């Protein structure tokens, strides 16, 4: 038998595991990234291979304003999460409303871009490979922004009724992870569509 | 007692109040349940139902192929049957049944009361079932306004342009794509749930290096599913955009590429094979040690090998595509990665053999199935290595040799392990033992049928018979082999019927199992059979990889060795 003095008792060990919402959200982010990656690959694979129709350089204009809005919304939601953590209702609600506003501005920018492309340039999903890959990826991203906005609005409404407090901090934090992810995807999408034409990659 | 884990309070022994309930009440209970055990059982039941359907489909195909120039089925019917058979067996049988066992076992093995997200769990199951029914709905409603076949007939990998509007006029291809897309959402949900459960819900003392290997493997397979299913979903969305919105993703007339579909499909498709085999490995990891009466050999190596397989499996997909004409460099890369993945898989085989070596082996039915797995899975791996050699692959691609190879993996490997798991955990799930006599009949008939079917399929493949043909002319020397293969398929069908009879009969008349009929070591055997809805009345605390061994052998518990090792390592530092 062992002579080591036995003081080993798991009951006294600290036992803390990560919050399940964050782990679940990370998994969702991995899954979504994997899906976006396939759409980006499809776009890059077909770059310059359209048989007809306009090239990205001819019709796409860089959406500076929308991009700045969406990226700043990452900062505002972070401030909103911090507000909830510090139990400052004003900062939580205010920054959350700001985030939603910035998201809406971004979506309106995308909508205007699409209207211009479709009615001015007669460029649709059916026009060419460029159209197919462009509209699907931007549409997929915009759908994610929209879903994020809906969820944030639910939190805002609940917050206005005073139903979001300390207990909901972890939930809101997980939701903010999703929003950061949507912003991060936009950086990839932005680079894919608006920067690559100027890199001379497309034949 | 300082040496035993406090499992005494695990069970709440107050008898449950039993009162007669209406049939409707029982149904309602199952439909609204968020209990991981009930959801796991529903996954298993639904999968068994689809297994019967997929099995009947393949028997029809085998009748057609038994003789040359047979007219039992029309060419169209044959195409529809192999499409339904492949799609059903992969997406609606293999995936859900394995996740069903994962759902049932993972919380029990880590001492949790339920999954991390019980409602997501229920949602995942029902959305999977809806997707599966959507595929079969095409038989009724697939006939669109354009006429044509109402059942998908493009093959389970659905290569473009067969799925384009020009070649699939009816809505069958849409139902196929939607069914898989939707059940894929369910799969991602379950996988995410299992990852979150293993990471966040472990009971006290259940460190990562103490988790049963079953849970480790379910964690790895779920993480793989989270990353590997979305490419398939993305490809299905692209297909639907092509079909409904006039997109050009896979439309060669507008410059699109049919090969891109193949890449996207197999980027999902090859990790998928490992997603399916990992749970089979998981069953092996639990069953072999218990019936060899030894702790698993090389636990850390097993974990490392599993994680290694998970990563490498994402780099091998294009070995399904050697014949599409990739560059020599790409071919070489995929040949190499496909061969490298055999190394961690080989480590596992050797570890199982080392576990059995010198053990007191009890050849019960679960152990018989696992032993057959070892033999058959090794053979399947060897033909896999053969097919990974590009020049060899050019000769035999799309022949029955390939069919024989992957059925050897899926039936000889996965299904055998799955049957082992049924016999092993049925007592836990129902409280009754399955009949060993019927089980042995099932096992030996299934082994006989399996080898008749798939051993000889290799030969007919080497003789040049291509896959997905509805008939063939006499004079190729294929007929006799095909007849043997068909007879073997029916022998397997008889064995499966014996299995189903055994399931139903044992459920009502089997011997009572008690909590721990196999004298096993993992936590699920600490609670009653079947476990109460709350699993454990008091959260268990574990100190080693075999908590029940510690409980049963207070004079020689595992944790003492672990503790000594830890101390020694600490002193060395």
Written account of the structure:
The complex is a heterodimer of chains A (203) and B (573). Chain A contains six helices and no strands. Chain A is mainly α and 203 residues long. Chain A has a domain of 136 residues: Four Helix Bundle (Hemerythrin (Met), subunit A) (Up-down Bundle), CATH 1.20.120. In chain A, helix 1 runs parallel beside helix 6 and helix 3 runs antiparallel to helix 4. The radius of gyration of chain A is 22 Å and the shape is elongated. The termini of chain A are far apart. In chain A, 33% of the residues are buried. The N terminus of chain A is likely disordered. Chain B has 573 residues and is an all-alpha fold. In chain B, helix 7 packs across helix 13. Chain B is 66% helix and 0% strand. Chain B has 17 helices and no strands. Chain B has one domain: Up-down Bundle (Cytochrome C Oxidase, Chain A), CATH 1.20.210.10. The N terminus of chain B is likely disordered.
Describe the secondary-structure layout.
The complex is a heterodimer of chains A (203) and B (573).
Chain A (H helix, E strand, L loop, with lengths): L19 H26 L10 H4 L4 H22 L3 H32 L8 H32 L8 H27 L8
Helix pairs in contact in A: 1-5, 1-6, 3-4, 3-6, 4-5, 5-6
Chain B lengths: L22 H10 L3 H31 L8 H35 L8 H24 L30 H29 L12 H33 L12 H35 L6 H14 L15 H13 L1 H15 L8 H24 L1 H7 L3 H31 L5 H27 L16 H31 L37 H6 L5 H15 L1
């Amino acid at each position: 038998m062992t002579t080591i003095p036995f003081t080993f008792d798991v009951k006294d060990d600290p036992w803390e595991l990560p919050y399940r919402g964050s782990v679940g959200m990370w998994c969702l982010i991995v899954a979504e990234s994997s899906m976006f990656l396939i759409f980006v690959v499809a776009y890059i694979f077909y770059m310059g291979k359209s048989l007809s129709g306009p090239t990205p350089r001819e019709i796409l204009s860089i959406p500076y304003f929308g991009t700045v809005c969406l990226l700043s919304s990452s900062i505002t939601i972070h401030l909103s999460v911090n507000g909830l953590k510090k139990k400052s209702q004003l900062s939580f609600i205010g920054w959350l409303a700001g985030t939603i506003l910035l998201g809406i501005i971004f979506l309106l920018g995308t909508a205007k871009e699409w209207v211009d492309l479709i009615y001015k340039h007669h460029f649709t999903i059916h026009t060419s490979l460029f159209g197919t890959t462009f509209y699907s990826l931007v549409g997929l991203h915009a759908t994610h922004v929209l879903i994020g906005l809906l969820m944030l609005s639910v939190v805002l409404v609940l917050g206005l009724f005073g139903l979001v407090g300390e207990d909901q901090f972890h939930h809101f934090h997980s939701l903010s992870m999703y929003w950061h992810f949507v912003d991060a995807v936009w950086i990839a999408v932005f680079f894919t569509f608006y920067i690559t034409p100027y890199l001379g990659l497309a034949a | 007692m300082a040496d035993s884990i406090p499992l005494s309070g695990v069970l709440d022994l107050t008898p449950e109040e039993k009162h007669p309930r209406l049939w409707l009440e029982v149904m309602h209970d199952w439909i609204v349940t968020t209990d991981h055990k009930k959801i796991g059982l529903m996954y298993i039941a639904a999968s068994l139902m689809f297994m019967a359907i997929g099995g009947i489909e393949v028997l029809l195909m085998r009748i057609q192929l038994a003789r040359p120039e047979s007219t039992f089925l029309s060419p169209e019917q044959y195409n529809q049957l192999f499409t339904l058979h492949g799609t059903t067996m992969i997406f609606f049988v293999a995936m859900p049944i394995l996740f069903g066992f994962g759902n049932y076992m993972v919380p029990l093995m880590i001492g949790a009361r339920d999954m991390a997200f019980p409602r997501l769990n229920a949602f995942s199951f029902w959305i999977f079932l809806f997707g599966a029914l959507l595929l079969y709905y095409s038989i009724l409603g697939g006939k669109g306004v354009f006429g044509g076949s109402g059942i998908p007939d493009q093959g389970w990998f659905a290569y473009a342009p067969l799925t384009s509007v020009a070649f699939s006029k009816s809505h069958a291809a849409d139902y196929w794509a939607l069914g898989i897309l939707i059940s894929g959402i369910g799969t991602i949900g379950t996988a995410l749930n299992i990852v979150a459960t293993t990471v966040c819900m472990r009971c006290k003392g259940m460190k990562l290096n103490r988790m049963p290997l079953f849970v480790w493997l379910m964690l790895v397979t779920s993480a793989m599913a989270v990353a590997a299913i979305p490419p398939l979903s993305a490809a299905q969305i692209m297909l639907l955009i092509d079909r409904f919105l006039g997109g050009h993703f896979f439309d060669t007339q507008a410059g699109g590429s049919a090969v891109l579909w193949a890449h996207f499909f197999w980027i999902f498709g090859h990790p998928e094979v490992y997603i399916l085999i990992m749970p089979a490995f998981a069953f092996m990891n639990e069953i072999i040690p218990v019936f060899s009466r030894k702790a698993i050999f090389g636990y850390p190596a097993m974990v490392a090998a599993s994680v290694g397989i998970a990563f490498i499996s994402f780099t091998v997909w294009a070995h399904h595509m050697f014949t599409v004409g990739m560059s020599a460099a790409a071919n070489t890369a995929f040949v190499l990665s496909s061969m490298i993945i055999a190394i961690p898989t080989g480590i596992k085989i050797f570890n199982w053999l080392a576990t059995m070596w010198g053990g007191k082996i009890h050849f019960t039915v679960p152990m018989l199935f696992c032993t057959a797995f070892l033999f058959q899975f090794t053979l399947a791996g060897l033909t896999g290595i053969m097919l990974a050699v590009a020049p060899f692959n050019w000769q035999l691609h799309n022949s029955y040799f390939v069919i024989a190879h992957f059925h050897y993996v899926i039936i000889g490997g996965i299904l055998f392990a799955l049957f082992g798991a049924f016999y092993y955990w049925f007592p836990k799930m129902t409280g009754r033992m399955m009949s060993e006599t019927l089980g042995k009949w099932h096992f030996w008939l299934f082994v006989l049928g399996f080898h008749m079917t798939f051993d000889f399929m290799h030969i007919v493949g080497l003789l040049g018979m291509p896959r997905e043909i509805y008939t063939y002319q006499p004079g190729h020397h294929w007929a006799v082999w095909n007849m043997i293969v068909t007879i073997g398929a029916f022998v397997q069908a008889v064995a499966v019927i014996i299995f189903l009879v055994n399931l139903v009969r044992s459920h009502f008349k089997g011997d009572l199992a008690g909590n721990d009929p196999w004298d096993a070591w993992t936590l699920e055997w600490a609670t009653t059979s079947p476990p109460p809805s709350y699993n454990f009345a008091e959260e268990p605390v574990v100190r080693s990889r075999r908590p029940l061994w510690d409980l049963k052998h207070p004079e020689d518990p595992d944790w003492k060795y672990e503790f000594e090792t830890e101390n020694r390592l600490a002193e060395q530092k």
